[in-house]
């Protein structure tokens, strides 16, 4: 802590020298007034270096001179009150919140459900993001930048080593609550409204927006494709979750993506028990496409999964002409590790795996015409293979 305090003191003295050299006023000042002027001048340089904005033109011209000091003064510290502030705010409490207010969360995070669709796409335009955030990267202090890198010692060429790291930025409100976070190409924004909170995540041309109610339960989830303009941005999917009273787990959800809809039901433990996929026609009528049903054992482990796909005639999706099913069954013996497994197609057993012990098992494949292949494995190696037809052994091979 003493080392940091000494660095801060040296930087303030340094800023006083900059202030004296950058300002043309020569009239005498009262020592306290002059100290405040120097402190405010340094803060304006810091604000400009961090955010790119300041009302003091002289500070803006001198801001590059404190680039190395920025990381120290913007480091988060814990105050005696238990709050987290920037180091500059801890040294001069009257500056608290001013830098964050320069990038007001209200300007970039929309708290209205009605306007957020257009605002989200507009905010995350690539041109806008480049303009707003390209100048907030923070350089390392001189004493850190001069530390030899291990790779340089191996190569023997320190000057040839160039390391770059993405800038990490956090913006908080006056209460110290996180409102915006950025790291490299990733962005995260948080806002509140009368009924809950909204969390927006953006990265590589895609965005996800989650809505939470007053109990912090996820009530809506949206996925967006973000283009270079508002017209090229679009919502790809939206999923709404439904709850019973104050139950923290949903009992159902509905996901819609263009002309497709998925309806999911959950059990009392929050695990999915069925999901139905539908095509939507031009009148938004549901046409069954696929259905998955999950069943669980008393210990909560998956016991069975059944998948059904509905088939339709050429050129029409109104009346199903057939369906195919795939069913997987898992069963565990008392004290056994891995479960036994059986796979069915349209009600016909096609494969099963039965465990002899934790390291050995037998797999049987069933084919049309009565053929079956039985393989015995031990410690991951195939030990024996037997081919039979309608129960009669046709060939058997053993492996050393």
Overview of the molecule:
There is one protein chain. The chain is an alpha+beta fold. α1 (2-22) packs across α2. Residues 1-7, 16-29 and 103-164 have low confidence and may be disordered. It has a 19-stranded antiparallel β-sheet. It is built from eleven helices and 21 strands. It has helices at 2-22, 31-51, 57-62, 70-73, 87-91, 98-102, 105-108, 116-123, 126-133, 142-145, 150-155, and strands spanning 76-78, 84-86, 168-172, 178-183, 186-193, 196-203, 206-213, 218-225, 234-242, 252-257, 260-266, 272-280, 286-296, 302-312, 320-331, 340-345, 348-357, 360-366, 371-378, 381-389, 392-398. It is elongated, with a radius of gyration of 32 Å.
List strands and helices in order, with pairings.
Blueprint: H1 2-22, H2 31-51, H3 57-62, H4 70-73, E1 76-78, E2 84-86, H5 87-91, H6 98-102, H7 105-108, H8 116-123, H9 126-133, H10 142-145, H11 150-155, E3 168-172, E4 178-183, E5 186-193, E6 196-203, E7 206-213, E8 218-225, E9 234-242, E10 252-257, E11 260-266, E12 272-280, E13 286-296, E14 302-312, E15 320-331, E16 340-345, E17 348-357, E18 360-366, E19 371-378, E20 381-389, E21 392-398
Helix pairs in contact: 1-2
Rg result: 32 Å
* Arithmetic mean pLDDT: 75
Q: How far from one another are the termini?
A: 68 Å
Low-pLDDT runs of 5+ residues are 1-7, 16-29, 103-164
**β-strand number:** 21
Helical content, roughly?
Answer: 10-25%
Largest sheet entry: 19 strands, antiparallel
Counting H and I runs of at least 4 residues, what is the number of helices?
11
The dominant shape is elongated
What structural category arises from helix and sheet content?
alpha+beta
Approximate strand percentage: 35-45%
């Amino acid at each position: 802590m003493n080392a940091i305090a000494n660095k801060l003191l040296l930087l303030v003295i340094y800023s006083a020298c900059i202030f004296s050299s950058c300002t043309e006023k020569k009239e005498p000042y009262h020592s306290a007034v002059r100290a405040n002027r120097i402190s405010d001048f340094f803060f304006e340089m810091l604000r400009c270096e961090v955010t790119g904005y300041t009302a003091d033109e002289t500070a803006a011209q001198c801001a590059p001179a404190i680039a190395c000091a920025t990381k120290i003064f913007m480091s988060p510290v814990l105050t005696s009150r238990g709050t987290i502030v920037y180091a500059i705010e801890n040294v001069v409490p009257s500056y608290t919140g001013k830098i964050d207010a320069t990038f007001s969360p209200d300007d970039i995070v929309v708290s209205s459900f009605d306007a957020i669709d257009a605002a989200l796409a507009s905010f995350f335009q690539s041109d806008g993001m480049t303009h707003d955030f390209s100048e907030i990267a923070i350089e390392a202090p001189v004493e850190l930048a001069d530390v030899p890198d291990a790779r340089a010692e191996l190569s023997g060429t320190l000057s040839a080593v160039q390391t770059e790291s993405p800038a990490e930025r956090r913006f908080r409100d006056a209460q110290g609550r996180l409102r915006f976070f950025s790291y490299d190409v990733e962005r995260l924004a948080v806002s509140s409204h009368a009924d809950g909170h909204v969390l927006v995540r953006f990265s590589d041309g895609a965005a996800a927006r989650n809505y939470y109610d007053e109990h912090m339960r996820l009530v809506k989830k949206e996925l967006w494709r973000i283009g270079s303009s508002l017209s090229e941005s679009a919502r790809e999917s939206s999923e709404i979750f439904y709850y019973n009273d104050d139950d923290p787990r949903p009992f159902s959800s509905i996901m819609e993506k263009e002309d497709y809809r998925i309806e999911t039901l959950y059990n009392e433990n929050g695990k999915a028990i069925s999901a139905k996929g539908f095509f939507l026609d031009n009148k938004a009528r549901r046409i069954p496409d696929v259905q998955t049903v999950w069943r669980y054992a008393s210990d909560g482990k998956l016991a069975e999964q059944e998948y059904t796909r509905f088939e339709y005639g050429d050129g029409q999706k109104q009346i199903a002409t057939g369906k195919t099913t795939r069913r997987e069954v898992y069963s565990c013996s008392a004290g056994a590790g891995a479960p036994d497994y059986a796979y069915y197609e349209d009600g016909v057993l096609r494969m099963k795996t039965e465990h002899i012990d934790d390291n050995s098992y037998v797999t049987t494949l069933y084919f049309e015409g009565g053929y079956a292949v039985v393989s015995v494995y031990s410690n991951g190696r195939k030990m024996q293979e037997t081919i039979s037809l309608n129960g009669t052994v046709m060939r058997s091979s053993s492996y050393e």
